[in-house]
Design a protein that fits this description.
Layout lengths: L3 H13 L3 H29 L4 H22 L7 H21 L3 H9 L11 E2 L2 H14 L1 H5 L1 E5 L3 E9 L19 E8 L1 E5 L2 E2 L1 H5 L5 H23 L14 E3 L8 E5 L12 H8 L4 H4 L3 E4 L1 H7 L11 E2 L9 E2 L2 E5 L11 E6 L1 H4 E6 L3 E5 L7 E13 L5 E5 L3
Parallel strand pairs: 2-14, 7-8, 8-17, 9-12
Antiparallel strand pairs: 1-15, 3-4, 5-16, 6-16, 9-13, 10-11, 11-12, 13-17, 14-16, 15-16
Helix pairs in contact: 1-2, 1-3, 2-3, 2-4, 3-4, 3-5, 4-5, 6-9
């Protein structure tokens, strides 16, 4: 229980006393009062089909106080009162919880309006709390094999543009007093990585949403992470760039001896749809050394499990297996000493297939995430279930065409 006079007094005191513990304690005190009053309001609605006006008015006053405390915390400079900033995040988390469970939007509108948020709108949903977004992105890295080895960049806009030097500055040795020749300017190319909308639509029952023991953030993250990982993982490998990222297998390919910028070089396996019967491991060594030394230090093999089963049987001239299992749980297996990323979206070995990739994917392939995951609550389309249209924007493409090489299964 809490009264308006105490709230107003505490609010004035907090403006004069920038004490971290007191400020955060004030917010938590208001938050507890909000929960108690809101529970009473919901109970009145269940008993009498309407809330007591006195209770509703009190709840509105507490919400205004929470908003004031949250905005005050959000305005603190970097390195300032971290506890109050945490209070602002807690307010968002609480408001989002109310939206998911009951469809209440007033608190979210107020918070995003005061934060001048341009990343969401009522028709397109509301931004999830930062903690939930981190939870989803962390899970995506665990579930998506390409995301785990590729470079990742977060942006606030819809397109990320990156200049890249195809040819470097002209350099050379010269005597101390010798004339210097004019150097040539480098050739630059602009790479563009637009972000595309990826969506999932988990469903929930009313009983799940009414269960206060269920952590809504964890439930939502758990529902969407696998769906997001499967869709983006496929796009990073074979995506055509139309409303999705461009996969590294969809770029033009040329024999590595004739490699030029804009193409991905390949090495022939030595047999149509297979490795040669004699010394098949030599072809793997050819693929490894098709990649320059600067890229090999952080290089990985990428293949599906069918290809991996073929390579697991290969031995060198001394009878040692080329493939080695992981040393400890959580590590990747290795092939010729390089880690193996298993992607089921890579093609099976077949005549002319590009079933094996090798290179530094952190430098070679870039994933662009637009900041913010949005959720739109839909209780109408699939009654009695409540649908949650969840979206994030993702882009991707090759950023260094010399960092990734492929094996084409041909003579």
């Amino acid at each position: 229980m809490i009264d308006k006079q105490n709230f107003e007094t505490k609010s004035r005191e907090s403006q004069d006393q920038p004490d971290v513990a007191a400020a955060f304690g004030e917010f938590m005190h208001a938050f507890e009062a909000f929960k108690n009053t809101n529970d009473r309001r919901l109970g009145e609605i269940e008993r009498r089909a309407a809330a007591d006006p006195v209770t509703s008015d009190k709840l509105a006053r507490i919400e205004r106080t929470l908003d004031e405390l949250s905005v005050k915390g959000a305005r603190l400079p970097i390195g300032g009162n971290g506890a109050v900033r945490a209070g602002a995040g807690l307010a968002h988390k609480m408001a989002f919880d109310g939206y998911v469970r009951k469809g209440e939007t007033a608190s979210l509108r107020s918070l995003e309006g005061k934060a001048l948020s341009s990343g969401s709108e009522p028709d397109g949903g509301y931004l999830v709390p930062d903690e939930t977004e981190r939870m989803v992105n962390s899970a995506l890295r665990d579930y998506s094999p390409i995301r785990a080895i590729a470079g990742v960049r977060q942006v606030s806009g819809s397109v990320y543009k990156k200049p890249f030097a195809i040819t470097g500055f002209e350099t050379g040795w010269v005597g101390e007093t010798a004339a210097r020749a004019q150097t040539a300017t480098p050739t630059l190319a602009e790479l563009s990585f637009p972000t595309m909308e990826l969506y999932a639509m988990p469903a929930a029952t009313s009983s799940l949403l009414d269960d206060s023991a269920v952590n809504i953030d964890e439930w939502l993250a758990g529902e969407v992470r696998v769906a997001f990982a499967e869709q983006e993982g496929k796009a990073f490998v074979t995506g055509d760039g139309v409303n999705k990222p461009t996969g590294f297998l969809t770029y033009p390919t040329v024999a590595n001896a004739s490699w030029t910028w804009g193409n991905i070089g390949f090495v022939a396996s030595g047999a149509a749809g297979a490795f040669p019967a004699a010394d098949p491991g030599d072809r793997l060594i050819d693929l490894v050394y098709a990649v320059k030394a600067g890229y090999r230090a952080n290089a990985s093999f990428v293949m599906n499990r069918a290809t991996q089963s073929v390579l697991r049987k290969m031995k060198d001239g001394d009878g040692n297996y080329l493939w080695q299992p992981a040393i400890k749980p959580g590590d990747a297996p290795t092939l010729l000493g390089y880690q193996v990323a298993e992607s089921e979206d890579m093609p099976n070995i077949a005549p002319g297939s590009l079933s094996l990739a090798f290179g530094d994917f952190n430098r070679g392939y870039l994933i662009v995430d637009r900041v913010g995951i949005r959720v739109l609550r839909d209780p109408y389309s699939s009654k009695p279930y409540v649908l949650f249209y969840t979206t994030k924007r993702v882009g991707g493409g090759v950023q260094d065409f010399d960092a990734i090489k492929l094996m084409r299964f041909q003579v």
